[in-house]
Task: inverse folding
């Protein structure tokens, strides 16, 4: 799944550094490529900011990422979390997040305009992490991103803006989404649906070319298990199917 030009670049470099006889050694070649990829992956610090905005196109998994991340922060890290939403456009979006906030027993609020932030900012001192859902934007409507830009106040302190993408998307589409949302000063990227594609090289290609850190991976539907803060090792594992191959080998031996 890695872009052909990036794969060719790595292989040519390998050829220039390795005797021809050793290039027939598949484990050696894969080991070199795995190390090369790992050295170039850029990841961000997990949940180091107070405000977390989740932005991106419809269907990328913004709401599910928020719920999974909130669950992890509460259950595993004992953090005080609040949920907000700017998405008053999609039918049922507000009610869905309200229900999950009740399940998690955390504060919830709806932001309908810039003036609503004044009240919200009065009550943030006791909260560790505030996770904010936003409406999904189409690539053809520039007004939608302008609406988000207006609501994500520049004066909000300590914020991360996570671009939420699907690993099922073609590279060209991923790049198009980034170009559309770049005005929001994207901090890092969340890739979802990693369990629904056999090729995760797109994630590396996107990271390598754009140098935007990876924040987290969504690898299934379970809450909170199938949400992982990104690591270099995990992405290499997903690209080369190391865990999958080991599991297959173990099952075969049984």
Result:
């Amino acid at each position: 799944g890695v872009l052909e030009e990036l794969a060719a670049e790595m292989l040519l470099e390998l050829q220039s550094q390795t005797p021809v006889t050793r290039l027939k050694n598949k484990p050696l070649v894969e080991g070199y490529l795995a190390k090369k990829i790992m050295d170039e992956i850029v990841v961000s610090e997990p949940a180091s900011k107070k405000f977390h905005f989740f932005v991106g196109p419809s269907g990328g998994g913004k709401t599910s990422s928020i719920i999974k991340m909130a669950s992890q922060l509460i259950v595993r890290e004992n953090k005080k979390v609040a949920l907000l939403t700017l998405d008053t456009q999609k039918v049922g979006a507000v009610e869905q997040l309200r229900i999950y906030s009740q399940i998690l027993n955390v504060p919830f609020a709806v932001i309908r305009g810039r003036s609503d932030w004044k009240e919200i900012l009065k009550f943030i001192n006791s909260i560790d992490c505030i996770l904010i859902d936003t409406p999904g934007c189409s690539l053809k409507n520039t007004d939608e991103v302008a609406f988000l830009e207006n609501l994500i106040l520049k004066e909000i302190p300590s914020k991360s803006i996570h671009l939420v993408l699907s690993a099922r998307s073609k590279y060209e589409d991923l790049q198009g989404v980034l170009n559309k949302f770049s005005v929001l000063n994207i901090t890092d990227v969340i890739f979802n649906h990693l369990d629904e594609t056999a090729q995760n090289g797109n994630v590396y290609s996107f990271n390598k070319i754009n140098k935007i850190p990876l924040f987290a991976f969504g690898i299934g539907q379970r809450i909170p298990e199938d949400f992982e803060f990104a690591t270099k090792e995990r992405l290499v594992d997903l690209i080369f199917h190391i865990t999958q191959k080991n599991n297959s080998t173990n099952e075969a031996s049984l």
